Structures are given as C-alpha cells and as structure tokens.
Amino acid sequence: MKKRSNFGCWLWAIGLVVGIPLLLLIVGILVFFGRERSARNELTKRLDRLVAQGLPVDDASLLEFNKSMTSSEDTRAWQGVFKQFESPEFKQSSKGVPLFDGLVEMNIPAPGEKWPQRIAGEELAAFSDDSDLGATDLDLQDQGFSAVEENVIVESEVRDFLANWSELHHKIAMLSLKQLEPEAKGVQFIAQFESLNTLLPCVQSLREAARLLSLRGQIALYDRDSKQVKNAIEALLGCSRTLQGEPILISQLVSIAIDGMAMELLKTGLEHDVLDEQELLALLPLFRAGVDIGPQWRIAIQGERAMGLPVFENPALAGDGAARIPARSRDALYFLDAMERVLKIPEDDFDSFLAALDAEEQKTDELVHGGILTMLDSVLTSLLTPAYRAAGSAFVRRAVQHRMAVTCIGIRLYEKRQGKLPAKLDDLISLQVDGTSFDLTTLLPAGGKPFGYRVDQQEAVVWGGNLRLDPATPAEPLPTAEGEPNADENKLWIWTLLRNSEASQ
Fold first, then answer.
1. How many CB atoms lie within 10 A of CB 455?
2. Which of 502, 425, 421, 429 has its CA nearest to residue 456?
3. Of 41, 206, 455, 494, which has the highest C-beta tally within 10 A?
4. Which of 281-292 are b and which e, b meaning 16 or more Cβ less than 10 Å from the residue's Cβ?
C-alpha cells in the first residue's frame, strides 16, 4: 500500500504560519489607513474652520497673520539700528560696559552709593601692609573703592560710552515711544516662517536696544534725574511693545523680559523716591495698561499652533529622529484639541488660569503614559505642546508685577500729596487721579490674598508671594539674605520705599 504524502499538511502549516500574520498585517494596514483617512477628513474640516476665522494653520497663513498684527512702517529703521549693534565700533566700545559685556558683573550704583574705582599699583601699595590683603580690601571699601579687578566698571567710561552712542540711543527711544500710541500695532520683523526652524534674529537684537535704554535709565537713577528716568521707563515699555503683534511664544517672552527691565528702573526709582509727582502721573496709566494678561497670550498660542501643524505633514521638521515617522493626521487632532483647550481657559483669575494650565500639562503627560495606541497616535503632540505652565506663569508674573507697580506708584503719590505714607493700603482709596479713585480690587495678586504692607518711621514695605513657588502673599516678606534659597528671586516681590525726607514724620 502506497504511503500518504505529508506535503499537503506541510503546505497547510506553512499557510497558517505565514498567512495569519500576513492577514493580520494587511488588516492592520487597512485599519491604519482607514483611521488615517478618517482623521485626515476631520483634520481638513477643522483647519478650514480656523482659516475661516482668519487664524493661521501653516507657514503661509502665519506670515499673513503676522502682517495683519504688525506694521512695516518702522521695520527698515529698526534694521538700521540692529546693523549698528553688529558693527566692530559698537562691539569694541561696549567692552567693560555693564549689560553689554558679560565679564562685567557689577551694576551701576544706586542713588546715594559710590562708584567703584580702579586703583593704580602705587595707590594700592599705599593701602597695603605687605601681606594682609584681606584688610586691604576692607580699607578700599571704606574708601569707596572696589576690589582690584580688571573688569571693574568706571563711571567716566560708562558715561563716555553713552555719549558716543547718544544718537543711536535717541533713535531707539523715538522708535520705541511710537509703540505707546493708542493705535500702534507692533513692528513687523519676521520676513519668513519655516515652522519650527523659523529664525528670530531681530528679536534677539532687540535685547541690545533694551540694554542701551536700561543703561541710560540706570545712570539717570544715579543722577536722581526724574525726567530722564521716566523717559527711560517709557522707552523700555515701548520697546517691549514692538513685539506685541508677533505670534510666537519666544517673542512674547522676550517682550516680557524687556518689560521687566522697565520694572527694575521703576522699582529702584520708587524705592529711592527719585520720581517726581509729574513723572509718576505720566507712568501710572502705562503700568495700569499691563495689570491683566492681555491679548499677547492668545496671539502666542495661536502662533505656536500654526508653527506646529506643518510638522504633522512633514515630521522631519521636528528633527532627524522624527524623519521616519509617517504623516500624522490623528496626532494633529490631539494637538489641535490640546491647543484649543488652552485657548479656552479664562484669564481673568490668575489662580484658576495657572491651575488649568497644570491640568493641561497633566493631560499631555497622560498621553505619553497611556495605552499603546494612544501613545502612538500622539507621539508628535507630546513633543510639540509647549510648557504651558512655565509660559503662562511668565504672563501672570508680568501682570502681577504691574499691579504691584501701580500700588507702589499710588503710595508715592499719596505721600507727596498728604505729606505722609499711608498707614494701610486701603488709604489709597481716597487717592484721586484724573478724577478717578484708586480701585484696589483690580490690583490683587495671585494666591487669594492682597499684597502685604507695613510702614514705620523709615520706610514702607510692599510684598507678595513668589509666583514660581507659592503665589499666596506670606505673612512676612520672603527671605532675601545671602545664602537663603531663592533670595535673588524673592527680591522681585519686595518693594521697600524709603520715607521721603521732606514728608512729615
């Protein structure tokens, strides 16, 4: 009897081993492309709705959006300013000048303080007792001299630097002040968008312009020149606003940083009572205008959304590591959902705003640690969503600092009119400016508590909480002694206003 062949059995076995995985692969591919096609249709509809609202969704529409939010009237003039910063003459002359030379750690002295001075070798020898250099340093400090360092700042050199570039300073100030006009739009700097590869050379150059304005303001503070301090603060606020229309988060954060330079000048001016009533009244509405988060937050998020969307069509834009990822329509929908939720967060209450941003970051984290399908569907979303809390905190910080500034301007105005510092902040309600009372309810910080306030025979102290750590106002000012954690950061939230010597005690 003939033996039955096993060939058929082997054929079936091979068919099962190869066929089932192949069938599963085919089904998986069909499901993937089916889901991708469905997501693509939904993505197209949602992008069309954004375009219909006049909002950007890619590089081309972002460029048009930027043009609609900014003006090119002063673009060429600003470019001329930036060109001068790049000149060898400017770079050479800025050596040894604070704010411009990174090796210089010293600051312009505050009103009433002494300038550091370089000491020649023979002068140093006169102070020295041969070996006790520590005592020499103390002797020098008693004489008003700094330690002998190559990078010590010299008053005459700083003033010569400002005099040599006075024309450039004047040009920057005039361009910046135009941004304080009611209908000013902001300056059009960006000529081309390329998703995540967009370059921002002008935005970085604007920092140099702000440094020149700030340096002039610091000299004016030392000279107790009220008008020049006011002019420097106004110019810095205007310089900050040149970026108000740029739909990019980094541009808005630079704007906030420049605004902070104006705040530093105001803080020192108020603490040392440099600013006269006329200058305070001129600055008050400018700082009132910044007590809320403002439209720049939404503009920045809308721009970040538009810069990120092209990556889902071309993942290589996210870097070499993403070059092999296919187009991700469903991933783009996760991204749109996340950005839309952020844009819908109310901004009027700082605490709920920050809490909602924390919740959004948590949702992004959940995508990364979710199921395999969810994780694969949202791989680019996890990379592209910005750090909401950090970005939002910067906008809240600026608004709270403006509220603090308005409060402290009110205290100085009250002192100048009443001849004494207010016993409590509620006394500011009686202060009339342009026929309007001081409304302290619009000047509350984050954290649910009003600013702290204390007054004695020498000074008034206003303080708040450190937004990065705990926004609630503490019972006492935060520690600022050397060696204390976050000491330098805490100083931002403590304004110490020395009592006016001419005021009644």
1. 18
2. 421
3. 206
4. ebbbebbbebbb
Please state, in angstroms and rounded to a whole number, the distance separating the CA atoms of residues 143 and 310.
Answer: 63
Dist. CA 406–CA 436, nearest whole Å: 14
pLDDT tens digits for range 40-81: 899 999 999 999 999 999 999 999 999 999 999 999 999 999
Give the separation between CA 199 and CA 283, rounded to whole angstroms.
Answer: 34
Query: Rounded to whole angstroms, how far apart are CA atoms 413 and 423?
Result: 14
Amino acid at 98: P
- Decide if 431 contacts 414 (C-beta within 8 A): yes
Closest CA to 261 of 217, 319, 315: 217
Count of residues in the chain: 505
- Name the phi and psi angles at 417, rounded to 5: -90, -35
Q: What separation in angstroms does the CA of 182 have from each of 179, 186, 325, 405? A: 8, 11, 47, 21
pLDDT of residue 16: 58
**Residue 150 DSSP symbol:** T
495: enclosing H helix or E strand: strand 494-498
Q: What is the mean pLDDT of residues 105-128?
A: 70
Distance CA 448, CA 364 (A): 28
Q: What is the pTM of this model?
A: 0.87
